[in-house]
Amino acid sequence: MTETVSGSTTRRGKGARKGLKMRRVFTSPGAHPYDGVEWERRDVVMTNWRDGSVNFEQRGVEFPASWSMNATQIVASKYFRGALGTSQREWSLKQLVDRVVGKYTETGREQGYFASDEDAEVFDHELKHALVHQLFSFNSPVWFNVGTASKQQVSACFILSVDDTMESILDWYKEEGIIFKGGSGAGVNLSRIRSSKELLSSGGAASGPVSFMRGADASAGTIKSGGATRRAAKMVVLDVDHPDIEEFVQAKAREEHKIRALRDAGFDVDLGGADIVSVQYQNANNSVRVSDAFMRAVETGSDFGLTSRMTGEVIATVDAKKLFRDMATAAWECADPGIQYDGTIQDWHTNPESGRISASNPCSEYMSLDDSSCNLASINLMKFLADDNSFDVERFERLTELIITAMDISITFADFPTEKIGETTRAYRQLGIGYANLGALLMATGHAYDSDGGRAVAAAVTSLMTGTAYRRSAELAGVVGPYDGYAKNADAHKRVMRKHAAANDDLRVVGAMEKPIHQAATRAWQEGLGIGEKNGWRNAQASLLAPTGTIGFMMDCDTTGIEPDFSLVKFKKLVGGGSMQIVNQGVPRALRNLGYHDEQVEAIVEYVSEHGHVVDAPGLKSEHYEVFDCAMGKRYIKPMGHVEMMAAVQPFLSGAISKTVNVPEEATVEDFEHIYFQGWKLGLKALAVYRDNCKVGQPLSTGKSEEKKEPAAAPEPKVIETNRPVRRRLPKKRPSQTVSFAVGGAEGYITAGSYPDDGLGEVFMKLGKQGSTLAGIMDAFSIAISIALQYGVPLETYVEKFTNMRFEPAGMTDDPDIRMAQSVVDYIFRRLALDYLPYEERAALGVFSAEERAGQVSGEDSTQVAAQVESYAQSAPVTEGEAGSGAGAAPAGTAHDTVELIELKQGFVADAPLCVNCGTKMRPSGSCYACEGCGSTSGCS
């Protein structure tokens, strides 16, 4: 796509300079990139399914016909600028892309990046084509800010610093708040702050970093609740040799114990609950920065020294193995802390002469100098899979060069939240190119995610991406100069480049697909080293793997970042309204690649559509099951499969990988220890592990205790008269009602009979086939409950005892008032409470109808609908799109996104939060969560 040549373009009056000669790959001379696209007009109306309120409405927006309705909704609601209902409001994707690309092209021309105006036009056209065809996307701040009257902030990831002074600590609070206010996230290492075991200059005891974390956490929570729609994205790191490390490790686990106590006392500690604000440290991810020395002490069972922050002397020793186990135990209990491996991080650091890498951004993929930032972009890998299942190496390389050029240009015009961050970023020009849809690529080509072949493909693609990015960075250094900090770090930077190239040489090719990719990567590294030796490099870092939450939806990716496929069936919104479930397109393609003929493929796809998995699918060989393993469900990828995939690509990344290793609820503390230890052995930079259901705050939970209270001690026996209870039988003819229900795919009926003067007197529950053991047990249970009701046992007693009882089947229900149940018994007694108990008693038990929950929402008017813009451009016809009522359309009151759909199919409950914007369940995206409905994320995007 490009060459470096002498050009006449001037840069700030410095005379003739070299510039990039751009070559067309995706576009043709004389044709605008928009001309070959079929455009159509659509109406975007987004609602909250919990209460029916309209969150966003804009009609007549213009998008390519190939874009899904989900991508259309997310872009129109999140990225279009201008007040709704005014002529200034953007209404077309063309306007959005023109706004952003225009700024990049203009700045590149002014700063001497291009050899001529013709080359600038080629750059402009190629970039517009790539964005409109969903080949890649910049991170969200670019779409929010570039080309607007706002500050031109392009970075989503920030690292701050804090020193051992009160002024620095207060500056940290302020800087973090500014970043959170803008919707981004920040990380910080608190290890410079003296420990609580050391003295102040006045002679008093120091507070220690964990104490100061409380203030920062409260600030983050306040700023979030003051206007943002997601929790603040925040990372706190502490070095393993800090004297307060034990307190840090236990901080969030202790708070989890507090949450359980508050829940059992009847407080509302659900996600977003009124009382959860009293719990500390809930707005940050915590990570321990472990050294190689510590890990070797764990391996040998040795003691490890904790050092004074003031003198550097060892002031205490700990049993390394015990501390490591404490870290694993805390993570087992509440998912924190994660681990960052300092030895590996510093070994791959290109700028050690400028300072250590001490922290990361909240999602752990960006690791660089303190007070710095990184702008991100991600490539849609599925766009480079050819019909013959080969990977289009040439187009992938050319797109990578184009993106790196654009990302570097953005640093030239970008604004930053603080001057310190601006100075560091402009001096080191850190970039974060990455990709999405790796999991979809592997499945479509018949590669199991957890396999040598899958890892080889992933490693080769990652090596090619980073090798090409650094080659382009070296070419840019010859055009506009190396980064300012390069001179004093030249030896270290070259050493790291050679380490990447050596890792590429060691990459073992397994199959035919990755062979040409690896050959191209080898060539890119060799050429890049030669050019860099002459020119230096323009960027201190080039690549990482981000979560790609919102932009992944914008690109219509099936999988995000490095993640495997979430599920085999997905929830698709239709252009004309409504929705339907579909089987991922990678499934039939994978089946054909594995040798199945069309009739077999059709039968297997139909089975997957029905069951959500491939186990026992007709005609499918069991040895092929692993190709269709997903992140969760009937067959999920084992935890070490995730770790080994991360290890396969880590040597080819400048930064790290945003990913959480999910383990089942029955995983042990020993499993956590093994995963964390293997992460170090395999050369990862960071690792976090999440055990299903380890957190108390679950979607739609009531805050009631699941545990039975210990009975009070029996009093001394006394001789007393007792009045035996009297059974009050129901009359022969009594009012009753029958309710049908479905919980986690299991269907049943509740028939409840009442006394004529009101009051529940009997309950019959039907579940399972007539004559089955389950049906018999339910009949016996029904009789026992009915007799007890007639003897005067209050219904509220049963509601209190049986709600939150957890066993399978569990999951989503078809009841709009009770969207999720932890078991059939949990559902039945919630339903009975809603039908037969007064509001005051239900409120005390935490059982509310959907209407009552909606009424409890604060007075923010989310139903106000903006006026429709009266005039639109004439470049695209208005189309009705597909009707949502056809075959396959999802019935009302069932699933609202892919997570809920797979819950219904496979009968499990995904341990994920509900989106505060639209109410649908979010799905994992790296170490964060992303909402498929509206694109909101739980972290930085």
Automatic annotation (TrEMBL):
UniProt enzyme class: oxidoreductase
Protein name (record): Vitamin B12-dependent ribonucleotide reductase
One of the GO BP terms on file: DNA biosynthetic process
Residues covered by region (Disordered): 699-719
Cofactor: adenosylcob(III)alamin
Matches recorded under PANTHER family: RIBONUCLEOSIDE-DIPHOSPHATE REDUCTASE, VITAMIN B12-DEPENDENT RIBONUCLEOTIDE REDUCTASE
Stretches assigned to the Ribonucleotide reductase large subunit C-terminal domain: 155-690
